Amino acid sequence: MRHATRLAIGPAAFRIGSDWRAPIAALDDLYRDYPKPEVPDFNVHLFAARPWRKFLRPAVHIGGDYTIPDAAPLPLAQGLLAAEMGMNLQMALAQRRFLLLHASAVERGGRAVLMTGISGAGKSTLAALLMARGWRLMGDEFVLIDPATGLAHGFPRLISLKNQAIAVVRAALPDARFGPLLPGTPKGDIRHLVPDARAIAAMAAPAEPALLLFPRFGFDAAERPVPPSEAFVRLTQASTNYVHLAERGFDALTRLVRTVPARAIDYPDTESGIALVEALA
Amino acid sequence: MTPGWRLAHVLRAPSLAMDFTAREWTELFAVARAEQMAGTLAHRLNGLALPAAVQRLVDDAIASAGQVRLAALWEAEMARRALAPLGMPVVLLKGTAFAAAGLSPSVGRNIGDLDILVPRDRIGEAEAALLAAGWEWVKPDPYDDAYYRRWMHELPPLIHRERDRMIDVHHTILPLTARITPDAEALLAASEPLGNGLSILSRPDRLLHAAAHLLADGDLAGGMRNLWDIHCMFASGASSGLTERARRHGLIREMARAARLSHALYGTEVPPEWQGLGVIDRLYLRRLTARDGWGRQTRKLTRLGFYARSHWLRMPPLMLARHLWTKYRKGYRPVG
Predict the structure, then answer these.
(1) What is the CATH number of domain A99-280?
(2) Which sequence spans correspond to the domains of chain B?
(3) ipTM of the prediction
(4) B30 → closest Cβ in A38, A43, A96
(5) pTM, two decimal places
């Protein structure tokens, strides 16, 4: 492909190729402090379906080693988002070394707090704000559980902030590096936040899972314990490769829900959300 | 050397990769994944002194292929249980057959759908039993459904509603409309029982099915893997009685070409009369190795030619015209 770059996020390494320069330039800028792997685990392709669509109403198709048919393309202005989606797609479809949980995670003192929930539950926002308060960010999208050790490995890609969360996090982290504002994406406005230097420096360090949280945004503050059975079922739904890992996946997940306490928390605003997490952790 | 050829050379002689640059390793795995051969490649490389990042890829691909194999065998067992009460012969084909019998092509091989062969006059019973056991039709279009039932060598594909796995139930190995008509009864009669109620094709028939599948059906997409199956079968000494059997099924030309291509691409030891390469053979090799360093398909014209040929092989011209017209009106366009 005409333009290409390489980068490693936690234990996963990528080569990203593109028919256009802009998405690669954006990656090179925002991921400048990340390691550049020699041989990647996955390849991502950002390509035009027809040669003339490189120039004429350019639409970025997302492909790679592993693809889903009929994925909708994005406009070139959202090329950075396409690259991020391409990397997520490789992880979701083909990561087999770790049990992949759709969750954000932060760590303090070697203990990891895992937060999972549907889109809009506030996983990314809580993770970014906890990072602002001195937690080590492990990731805002995926947590990787090693079936051999039970440890959580981080995947601290760019934090994807959506809609109102953008202003909230900018206020909390005025000196942080942000990507360009991407208005009108399929998920609304998106702006990427570069994880802080500590998160990048420690991205290869795993942590012991200490707390599982199921946050919900927009409800009165509340908290209840989640029994292992319920946590198990919710996490099978939050995992893209649970079925593929078969027995290894079952063992890793049952071990996780048996050994780590789980809580469901509702929060009306980010301040009380942060307070709830820090009180429990 | 193009990335497609480089994969073929490494599969043939893995130590060639020992002085690869990081870029060559990267491209090797990209092409292998695109050709569904990452597990095969990984098994070939394993045991050599590999760079750490490459060893990681190898370990992951081997583990992944092991899981694929397990799931495929489980799927075969599920079909066996559904069909056992009918007491009809059920022959595993392709990947699942190799895995179930522990044959050499199965090492690291990816296995997609479950392919089985049953007697044509009992295929309705097989279908009913599978539907009762949780498989469902996936071709909602009545034309597509009729197309399979009238003209194809298999039922419309069925998917199991809980396990999301596809089964192709064949009654022969080439479409009924194709010019070549293999002897399906002979395939069943010569099949070898595995001891659990399932069978696999006989040694020569396995090779001939692979050759027919590669060269008399389809557009050679994924052909490097199908040819690797053929290479492995030749290497395990499957060629005795092959010529007579090929003649019986009308597959002598396909058999000879498969042998020539396998010899050229993978260095397979084949009888001397199958070692030269014609002009047309070179076109096949061009199509088989059409991948760039990202694993993307190249040589669009060559591929288009083989795509057109696949339809030509499949049915007589008038029937083809009618079929393409019907599909066109339904909004179907070939993917480039």
Answers:
(1) 3.40.50
(2) 3-329
(3) 0.92
(4) A43
(5) 0.92
